[in-house]
Amino acid sequence: MSAPTPLPDVQTVMKTARVYARDLVERVASTFVQGTLGGIVVTTPLDLSMWHAAAVGGVAAVLSLGKGLFARLGEVKNSASLAKGV
Q: I need a labelling partner for 62 at 20 to 30 A (CA). Which of 3, 16, 24, 70 fits?
């Protein structure tokens, strides 16, 4: 029978969770800003409201959040990236 796998200490787990949370928040916020700016560029010539642009940014941010949470299921637990080794 093989020896049990040692678990990481609490400090390591908390540090990993903090790094992941900071990475995910940064990605969601930047996606919202980029989506909103992209929405403004599209909605201005089409005479749509600024609220439509904000909605576009919000939808993009929610999708980014979902992708980041999905990435957590992969190998690397402290990154919101789907890329290997990030």
A: 16
